[in-house]
UniProtKB/TrEMBL annotation:
Keywords: Membrane, Transmembrane, Transmembrane helix. It comes from the Bacteria. It comes from Cupriavidus numazuensis. The lineage of its organism: Bacteria, Pseudomonadati, Pseudomonadota, Betaproteobacteria, Burkholderiales. The chain crosses the membrane at residues 6-24, 36-56, 68-86, 98-117, 123-141, 150-169, 181-202. This is Transporter.
Length: 222
Protein backbone atom coordinates (compact mmCIF):
# COMPACT_ATOMS: atom_id res chain seq x y z
CA UNK A 1 0.00 0.00 0.00
CA UNK A 2 1.12 3.56 -0.70
CA UNK A 3 2.17 5.91 2.12
CA UNK A 4 -0.78 8.16 1.27
CA UNK A 5 -3.15 5.37 2.34
CA UNK A 6 -1.56 5.18 5.80
CA UNK A 7 -1.52 8.95 6.14
CA UNK A 8 -5.22 9.04 5.28
CA UNK A 9 -6.04 6.29 7.81
CA UNK A 10 -4.01 8.10 10.47
CA UNK A 11 -5.84 11.37 9.83
CA UNK A 12 -9.22 9.63 10.09
CA UNK A 13 -8.11 7.88 13.31
CA UNK A 14 -7.06 11.29 14.66
CA UNK A 15 -10.55 12.63 14.02
CA UNK A 16 -12.06 9.57 15.70
CA UNK A 17 -9.89 10.12 18.78
CA UNK A 18 -10.32 13.87 19.13
CA UNK A 19 -14.07 13.91 18.53
CA UNK A 20 -14.55 11.03 20.97
CA UNK A 21 -12.41 12.53 23.74
CA UNK A 22 -13.84 16.01 23.54
CA UNK A 23 -17.36 14.80 22.87
CA UNK A 24 -17.21 12.93 26.17
CA UNK A 25 -15.74 16.02 27.83
CA UNK A 26 -18.66 18.12 26.61
CA UNK A 27 -21.04 15.51 27.98
CA UNK A 28 -19.18 15.86 31.27
CA UNK A 29 -20.09 19.54 31.17
CA UNK A 30 -23.69 18.47 30.53
CA UNK A 31 -23.70 20.15 27.16
CA UNK A 32 -25.51 17.37 25.33
CA UNK A 33 -25.84 19.23 22.03
CA UNK A 34 -22.09 19.62 21.59
CA UNK A 35 -21.27 16.31 23.23
CA UNK A 36 -23.50 14.17 21.06
CA UNK A 37 -22.71 16.11 17.88
CA UNK A 38 -19.00 15.46 18.46
CA UNK A 39 -19.86 11.78 18.98
CA UNK A 40 -21.80 11.77 15.71
CA UNK A 41 -18.53 12.88 14.10
CA UNK A 42 -16.78 10.03 15.92
CA UNK A 43 -19.21 7.45 14.58
CA UNK A 44 -19.06 8.90 11.09
CA UNK A 45 -15.25 8.91 11.02
CA UNK A 46 -15.12 5.38 12.48
CA UNK A 47 -17.28 4.07 9.66
CA UNK A 48 -15.24 6.02 7.13
CA UNK A 49 -12.12 4.31 8.50
CA UNK A 50 -13.78 0.90 8.24
CA UNK A 51 -14.62 1.63 4.63
CA UNK A 52 -11.03 2.51 3.76
CA UNK A 53 -9.55 -0.41 5.67
CA UNK A 54 -11.94 -3.12 4.52
CA UNK A 55 -14.09 -1.67 1.75
CA UNK A 56 -17.25 -2.09 3.85
CA UNK A 57 -19.95 -0.47 1.72
CA UNK A 58 -22.49 -0.33 4.54
CA UNK A 59 -20.01 1.64 6.63
CA UNK A 60 -19.57 4.05 3.75
CA UNK A 61 -23.33 4.64 3.57
CA UNK A 62 -23.47 5.33 7.31
CA UNK A 63 -20.55 7.74 7.06
CA UNK A 64 -22.10 9.46 4.03
CA UNK A 65 -25.36 10.06 5.89
CA UNK A 66 -23.65 11.29 9.06
CA UNK A 67 -21.31 13.53 7.08
CA UNK A 68 -24.37 15.15 5.47
CA UNK A 69 -25.93 15.41 8.94
CA UNK A 70 -22.94 17.24 10.42
CA UNK A 71 -22.28 19.50 7.43
CA UNK A 72 -25.91 20.48 6.94
CA UNK A 73 -27.29 20.62 10.45
CA UNK A 74 -25.05 19.10 13.14
CA UNK A 75 -22.32 21.72 13.19
CA UNK A 76 -24.14 24.79 11.80
CA UNK A 77 -27.28 24.36 13.93
CA UNK A 78 -26.74 21.92 16.79
CA UNK A 79 -23.17 22.92 17.65
CA UNK A 80 -24.10 26.60 17.44
CA UNK A 81 -27.01 26.00 19.83
CA UNK A 82 -24.59 24.22 22.17
CA UNK A 83 -22.10 27.10 22.08
CA UNK A 84 -24.90 29.53 22.92
CA UNK A 85 -24.63 28.18 26.47
CA UNK A 86 -21.59 30.41 27.04
CA UNK A 87 -22.46 33.33 24.77
CA UNK A 88 -26.15 33.71 25.60
CA UNK A 89 -26.67 31.36 28.59
CA UNK A 90 -28.95 29.21 26.46
CA UNK A 91 -29.58 25.87 28.14
CA UNK A 92 -32.39 23.92 26.48
CA UNK A 93 -34.20 21.05 28.13
CA UNK A 94 -33.48 17.41 27.30
CA UNK A 95 -36.66 17.35 25.22
CA UNK A 96 -35.47 20.31 23.16
CA UNK A 97 -32.08 18.62 22.69
CA UNK A 98 -33.85 15.54 21.35
CA UNK A 99 -35.98 17.67 19.05
CA UNK A 100 -32.84 19.33 17.67
CA UNK A 101 -31.40 15.96 16.70
CA UNK A 102 -34.70 14.56 15.44
CA UNK A 103 -35.24 17.56 13.16
CA UNK A 104 -31.64 17.29 11.93
CA UNK A 105 -32.08 13.59 11.10
CA UNK A 106 -35.27 14.38 9.16
CA UNK A 107 -33.56 17.20 7.29
CA UNK A 108 -30.58 14.98 6.47
CA UNK A 109 -32.87 12.27 5.12
CA UNK A 110 -34.24 14.81 2.68
CA UNK A 111 -30.75 15.98 1.73
CA UNK A 112 -29.46 12.53 0.88
CA UNK A 113 -32.56 11.10 -0.80
CA UNK A 114 -34.70 13.81 -2.41
CA UNK A 115 -34.06 14.48 -6.10
CA UNK A 116 -34.99 18.15 -5.92
CA UNK A 117 -32.06 18.97 -3.61
CA UNK A 118 -29.34 17.38 -5.74
CA UNK A 119 -28.34 20.58 -7.53
CA UNK A 120 -28.73 23.13 -4.71
CA UNK A 121 -27.28 20.80 -2.03
CA UNK A 122 -23.62 21.90 -2.37
CA UNK A 123 -24.68 25.55 -2.09
CA UNK A 124 -26.81 24.70 0.93
CA UNK A 125 -23.82 23.14 2.69
CA UNK A 126 -21.65 26.19 2.04
CA UNK A 127 -24.40 28.59 3.12
CA UNK A 128 -24.99 26.72 6.37
CA UNK A 129 -21.29 26.54 7.16
CA UNK A 130 -20.88 30.23 6.32
CA UNK A 131 -23.57 31.04 8.86
CA UNK A 132 -21.61 28.98 11.42
CA UNK A 133 -18.47 30.94 10.51
CA UNK A 134 -20.27 34.20 11.23
CA UNK A 135 -21.13 32.88 14.67
CA UNK A 136 -17.52 31.75 15.20
CA UNK A 137 -16.36 35.29 14.43
CA UNK A 138 -18.73 36.53 17.15
CA UNK A 139 -17.46 33.80 19.51
CA UNK A 140 -13.88 34.91 18.90
CA UNK A 141 -14.87 38.52 19.60
CA UNK A 142 -16.45 37.49 22.90
CA UNK A 143 -13.24 35.67 23.85
CA UNK A 144 -11.15 38.69 22.93
CA UNK A 145 -13.38 40.97 24.98
CA UNK A 146 -12.96 38.58 27.91
CA UNK A 147 -9.17 38.83 27.64
CA UNK A 148 -8.72 35.38 26.09
CA UNK A 149 -6.71 36.44 23.07
CA UNK A 150 -5.02 33.08 22.48
CA UNK A 151 -8.32 31.23 22.44
CA UNK A 152 -9.82 33.92 20.20
CA UNK A 153 -6.96 33.38 17.75
CA UNK A 154 -7.61 29.62 17.86
CA UNK A 155 -11.29 30.10 17.04
CA UNK A 156 -10.42 32.38 14.13
CA UNK A 157 -8.04 29.68 12.86
CA UNK A 158 -10.90 27.17 13.09
CA UNK A 159 -13.16 29.58 11.23
CA UNK A 160 -10.71 30.05 8.35
CA UNK A 161 -9.64 26.42 7.94
CA UNK A 162 -13.11 24.92 8.28
CA UNK A 163 -14.63 27.50 5.94
CA UNK A 164 -11.95 26.69 3.38
CA UNK A 165 -12.71 22.97 3.60
CA UNK A 166 -16.46 23.59 3.37
CA UNK A 167 -16.03 25.89 0.39
CA UNK A 168 -13.89 23.53 -1.70
CA UNK A 169 -15.66 20.31 -0.69
CA UNK A 170 -18.00 20.12 -3.68
CA UNK A 171 -16.53 22.81 -5.90
CA UNK A 172 -12.78 22.36 -6.22
CA UNK A 173 -10.51 19.43 -6.90
CA UNK A 174 -6.92 19.56 -5.66
CA UNK A 175 -4.63 19.05 -8.69
CA UNK A 176 -3.32 15.49 -8.81
CA UNK A 177 -5.67 14.37 -6.04
CA UNK A 178 -7.69 12.00 -8.23
CA UNK A 179 -8.90 9.85 -5.32
CA UNK A 180 -9.47 12.84 -3.00
CA UNK A 181 -6.96 11.42 -0.50
CA UNK A 182 -5.23 14.76 0.09
CA UNK A 183 -8.55 16.51 0.57
CA UNK A 184 -9.80 13.93 3.06
CA UNK A 185 -6.55 14.17 5.05
CA UNK A 186 -6.91 17.96 5.24
CA UNK A 187 -10.62 17.72 6.08
CA UNK A 188 -10.12 15.19 8.89
CA UNK A 189 -7.24 17.13 10.44
CA UNK A 190 -9.19 20.39 10.16
CA UNK A 191 -12.22 18.92 11.91
CA UNK A 192 -9.93 17.37 14.55
CA UNK A 193 -8.49 20.82 15.15
CA UNK A 194 -12.02 22.20 15.49
CA UNK A 195 -13.02 19.54 18.05
CA UNK A 196 -10.04 20.40 20.26
CA UNK A 197 -10.00 24.18 19.93
CA UNK A 198 -13.73 24.69 20.46
CA UNK A 199 -13.68 22.67 23.68
CA UNK A 200 -10.95 24.80 25.24
CA UNK A 201 -12.41 28.04 23.85
CA UNK A 202 -15.78 27.06 25.32
CA UNK A 203 -14.15 26.44 28.70
CA UNK A 204 -12.31 29.75 28.58
CA UNK A 205 -15.48 31.73 27.87
CA UNK A 206 -17.37 29.69 30.44
CA UNK A 207 -14.83 30.65 33.13
CA UNK A 208 -14.90 34.28 32.03
CA UNK A 209 -18.70 34.37 32.24
CA UNK A 210 -18.66 32.81 35.71
CA UNK A 211 -16.06 35.31 36.92
CA UNK A 212 -18.11 38.18 35.53
CA UNK A 213 -21.26 36.85 37.20
CA UNK A 214 -19.45 36.42 40.53
CA UNK A 215 -18.09 39.97 40.35
CA UNK A 216 -21.54 41.32 39.57
CA UNK A 217 -22.99 39.40 42.54
CA UNK A 218 -20.33 40.81 44.86
CA UNK A 219 -20.98 44.36 43.71
CA UNK A 220 -24.73 43.86 44.11
CA UNK A 221 -24.21 42.54 47.65
CA UNK A 222 -22.44 45.74 48.62
Amino acid sequence: MEPSFYILCLSIATLVATSLIFGLKFLGKRNYLLGFEWLVVTFSASNFLLYFLGGVQFSYRISYFLDAFSRGFGIPVIATAGLLAVTHRYKPSILVDILFFAAAVAGTAVLVSADFVVEPKPYFYVAMWSAFSVYLAYFAWRLLRAGEGLHAFGVLAVLLTCQAIASIYDFYKIPGDDEHAIFYVLACLTWSFMCVVMYYAYGALERAEKSEASLAAMLAAR
